[in-house]
Write a structure and sequence with these properties.
The chain is 79% helix and 0% strand. It has helices at residues 2-17, 21-48, 50-57, 63-92, 97-117, 127-150, 157-186, 200-224, 230-233, 239-246. It is flat and about 75 Å long. With 247 residues, the protein is an all-alpha fold.
């Protein structure tokens, strides 16, 4: 996201300096679309695979506690990524202070949620990532509202979000199904036990296999749905080469 936001501001500002509002709108739309294409599958993947990933990376931790925290934070990161690019779009159009005010409002929500929700005995630490979701989802909603009100030729949000969200949802369902099937196949009953248990090696195989299948499915859907255009790739490193590969 840092690379994309760094490229958005000079690209949009340069187009506006040439009085090319259409070009500025095209760059803004491409930046939002690329961010959605990257952030949505990341968030969905972490949400679906939170427990297996935590068990893979930190086997000493209690996966039933740490897994849901990672899953919830995965959803929060989607809002974070989209908000960062929206901030860059607003700043490139000269609205420097609006993103700061939005962040202050979101920070207030985050502090309120942490103070009150985390203190609830039945919620506890799970309230912290929930506070992140509330904070950054509010920031993103306000940023999108501001973009629609103050920026001419603003991107059509349906075009930006629908295809990445659809591809990510299908990808997440596939990852969940593949891991569930692999977990049943690879689980074994330890000596002296009555219930089947998935070993660390088995979890690694199931997790990496599910992620591999998810990557292939997502890339195939992005191509099939034409979720990215040649103009969008101009913001990415080696974008022209990728465009030639995609035809």
């Amino acid at each position: 996201m840092a690379a994309i936001t760094a490229s958005v501001i000079p690209a949009v500002s340069g187009a506006l300096a040439r009085r090319d509002r259409r070009g500025a709108a095209r760059v803004s739309g491409s930046a939002l679309r690329i961010t959605a294409l990257l952030a949505f599958p990341m968030g969905v993947g972490l949400f679906v695979m939170g427990k297996p990933i935590m068990q893979l990376l930190y086997p000493a931790l209690e996966k039933d506690l740490a897994g849901p925290l990672l899953s919830t934070l995965g959803l929060a990161t989607v809002f974070v990524c989209m908000m960062l690019v929206c901030n860059s779009v607003l700043q490139a159009h000269g609205f420097v202070n609006l993103p700061v005010l939005v962040m202050l409002l979101g920070g207030g929500i985050k502090i309120f949620a942490n103070y009150h929700v985390v203190a609830m005995p039945k919620v506890g630490i799970y309230g912290a990532p929930v506070g992140n979701i509330l904070c950054f989802s509010l920031c993103l909603a306000l940023d999108l509202l501001l973009i629609s009100r103050v920026i001419p030729r603003r991107p059509r949000y349906a075009d930006v979000f629908f295809k990445p969200l659809l591809a990510s949802a299908v990808m997440g369902a596939a990852a969940w199904a593949v891991y569930g099937l692999a977990e049943k196949v690879l689980s074994a009953v330890p000596e002296g036990e009555t219930e089947a248990v998935l070993s660390r090696t088995g979890n690694a195989m199931a997790t990496l296999g599910a992620i591999g299948v998810a990557v292939v499915i997502y890339l195939a859907l992005v191509v099939a749905l034409r979720a990215i255009a040649r103009d969008d790739l101009s913001l990415m490193p080696k974008g022209e080469r990728i465009a030639r590969l995609l035809g």
